Amino acid sequence: MTEPAKKLWRIEINEKLCKGCGICADFCPTNVLEMKGIIVGVVNLDKCTGCQLCDLRCPDFAIQVFPR
After folding, report:
1. Contact, 20 vs 40, CB < 8 A?
2. Do the domain assignments include residue 54?
3. Over the stretch 35-45, which tens digit does the pLDDT of each residue have?
4. Please, where are the H alpha helices in 1-68?
């Protein structure tokens, strides 16, 4: 029996809107996001499950998650 293909996700961060609060990184259950200075960055995209907690919790609408 073969494993089903893992769904891939794309994360877009609008650096003009991100104020660096870190809420998205704090809520990410798989540690996909990390603060890089004053802006959040994607560090482990392959671990993204597409839960969209980062997207839902961002108070500035600076992050979006899409299927690839």
Report:
1. yes
2. yes
3. 999 999 999 99
4. 23-27, 53-57
